[in-house]
Amino acid sequence: MGEVANDEKKVGGGNVKILTTTNVKPKKLIGRKECQLVTFDLPYLAFYYNQKLLLYKGGDDFDDVVEKLKDGLALVLEEFHQLAGKLEKDEDGVFKVVYDDDMDGVEVVTAAAEAIEVAELTAEEGFSKFKELLPYNGVLNLEGLQRPLLAVQLTKLKDGLAMGCAFNHAILDGTSTWHFMSSWAAICGGATSISVPPFLERTKARNTRVKLDLSQPSDAPEHANSASSGGPVLRGKVFKFSESAVDRIKSTVNAGDSKPFTTFQSLSAHVWQAVTRARELGPTDYTVFTVFADCRKRVDPAMPESYFGNLIQAIFTVTGAGLILSNPAEFGAGLIRNAIESHNAEAITKRNEEWESNPVIFQYKDAGVNCVAVGSSPRFQVYDVDFGWGSPESVRSGLNNRFDGMVYLYPGKSGGRSIDVEISLEAKTMEKLEKDKDFLIQP
Asked: In 3D, which of 158, 65, 164, 60 has the Cα closest to residue 112?
C-alpha cells in the first residue's frame, strides 16, 4: 500500500522530508464507472495539474490528523469517485474518465518540514517557496492516462500543516474543486453524508464525441511549466484589498454609469488598468483581458451548481492599451461586462461547435498578448474548508499554469467583501505595480 522515502528538499529555509506515499480508494466497492469527457473538458488536456495550497495552524497529532484525513477521503470518494480514477481513450480516440475498484485511487504523500513555521508561508510575496509542499509540479493533465487524477501532500510544519493538492484540470474546474474540498472537510468534521452530491452526468451539458489525435508534434506542448522554464522571471504576490478598498474601487468605477458594474467587473477593470500601466505599453499595443467564466447557469438547459467537471469557457476582450490608460476604469469594466453578458447559451454552443469542427488543445499561457487572465473566484468559500481544527490561515495557488498576467481571486480571510488578488508578473512590471498608489488604494 505504501512506500517510505527519504527525500529531503529545501524550501523556505528548511528541509522537506518525504515520509510515505500511499493511495486512498473509495471505502466501499463501486465497480466500473465510465464518463466521457466533453467539449468543456478536452481543451485543458495540455494544461498542468491545478494546484492549491492550504495552510493550517495548530492541529492535533500529525499521524492522527493524517489518518483522519485519509478516512474522510475514502468516504468522500464514494461520491466523487471520478477523482480516484484515470483517463482512458476508447477505440475511437475519445477521452473518458474511468474508475474501477482495482485502480490505485488518490495518491497521498506525507512529509515533514518541522523547521518551517506557517507564518513563513503566509507572506504575501512569492510562490517558488511552495514548490516542495505541492505534488505534481510540471505534470500535464494528459499524464492522467498513467497517473492518479488527484494527488495530496500533507506536510507537518513547526506549528501546523500544509495541505498541497494537485487536481487534473481535464476533469474538473474550480467550482467542482471547492465542492469536493468542502465536502471532504465536512465529512472529516463529523458529517455523516455529503450534503450536495456531485452531478456526474457531464454528457447532459454536451454530448458530442470528439476524437483527438495527440500524436502530431504540433499538438504536443513544447514548453515546460512556467515557474521552472527559461522564460521571463516571474514574481508572484498577493495584494489584499479590504472590504472598504473593494467598496471604494466599485464606487469609483460606477461613478459615471447608470447600470451598476459588479464587484468582479469593477475590480477586474482596476487590475487590468494598473497592470497595463505597470507594463508601460504603448498606446497602439494590444492588451487582452481573459476570464474563465462559469457556464453552469448559461448553458441551455442550465446545469446544477453541483455539476462535476469543467463547465467553464475562456472569454476574451481585446483593446488598445492607450484606450485602457486614457479612460477611467469604467471603460475597461464596460468591455468586460459586455463580453461576459454576451456569452450566453447561443454563444457557448457556437464556440463548442467551432471547436468540435477543428479541435485545438490549448496551452496554459494561450490567454492573449499582454494579457490579464482571471481564474478562481472570490465566490469560492475557501476559508470554510475546516477539517476539524479551524479554517486555513492562507489559501494559495501553486506553481503550475502560471504566466505573465495570471490572476487568481480569493475571498479575503478577514471576510465580508474583502478580496485577495494573487498576481504573477514579470519582475520589472511587478516592481512598478507595487509602487502604484492608485492601484493599492491607500487607507
From this structure: 158
